[in-house]
């Protein structure tokens, strides 16, 4: 195989003209992805547990600000994603296969480390958030059945700690699978499940609205003195913005989808037609589709529950019946998150493993593969370092989830911490560098203003989420149901 960093003629690269049948223009395995498959990966990455908190978020912000922020985040995400897609190829035509590679090519220096910190911090945070959400959904299934049998006023107490442990055990086993990218059905499962539970939630909300038994809504959301105090109104509004930002946490993984060398993507974008054009179309299709779902979930959920909308409208019992449909929705959430956890964990696994292999290539513990016969599975390749490291990672994320099992606050904090650097700052700065935008020109000033405004929004969202997290910790009784 040719070197990964071989430089080719840009015109040849863009056209995808290559003489090899099995390899692409830079010696990597030939890519076969299309706009359709890229759109599916985008939808899988975007539609996640964040959709469950959107009704609560709109309730904190109200009809006007809630819808405006939902749509604005979508527009900003699409706009900066097109910039990021253009940066996939360097000026010499070589492919940048990770987000850090792109930043290294166009910005360099300490910004590469900042990008890595933000991106992998985002991935780690998402896996923690998914552990919390999956356990909450499993608890909800138990409570739903209890309420159905004993009545809505019954004391149905179910601990989420055993479910967190069970989720961790499942992820430990899945994490040991070598060549995880061969399991292409994973993204299909995640996509189907995410659309299923989002659709069920929207349908249940529409049914409540149709029944006429709806909560009180307003242009500005929760009412000071009635629903919340003045300080709660401010902090919860900021936290809601963070939750919405989390729900659009897609840019962190855009380059990897486009390059598709990471293990969770199998059918990668082929180089003809040019990847940036295909990726822009896929991004438009993916973000448009998810935005429609988000607006429906947020608005219909708010219309149904009003200012008392629950933090998670499928697990906080805004709905009690039909209990079997709510069970199906929560089961879909769990199945989606089992798959989605690996989507975001695999880049972390591979990053650490590649660094360790490079640093200690002579260590058999790190590099050697052992073949073992496992009943029902046949021959299995075991690497002791992979076994220890990946197991430790899953244990770590599970422990953090046990310590801080706070759905909305965790989502808001992760969204606030990663939205600005990964979705706004780096794409804009690389666009300015790539297109050589003249300093202090009208376009340069407009782009810098966008970066500054989004920074302020992210900081406020982070503060709101931290305040919410502190309040949750104060009232939290560890190891109680």
UniProtKB/TrEMBL annotation:
InterPro entries named among the record's database cross-references: AA_transpt_TM
Residue stretches making up the Amino acid transporter transmembrane domain: 31-470
Organism superkingdom: Eukaryota
Any one Gene Ontology BP term: amino acid transport
Alphabetized UniProt keyword annotations: Amino-acid transport, Membrane, Transmembrane, Transmembrane helix, Transport
UniProt GO cellular component terms: membrane
Compartment annotation: Membrane
Transmembrane annotation, as ranges: 36-56, 62-80, 183-210, 284-303, 323-344, 387-404, 410-428, 449-470
Annotated region (Disordered), positions in chain: 1-29
Protein name: Amino acid transporter transmembrane domain-containing protein
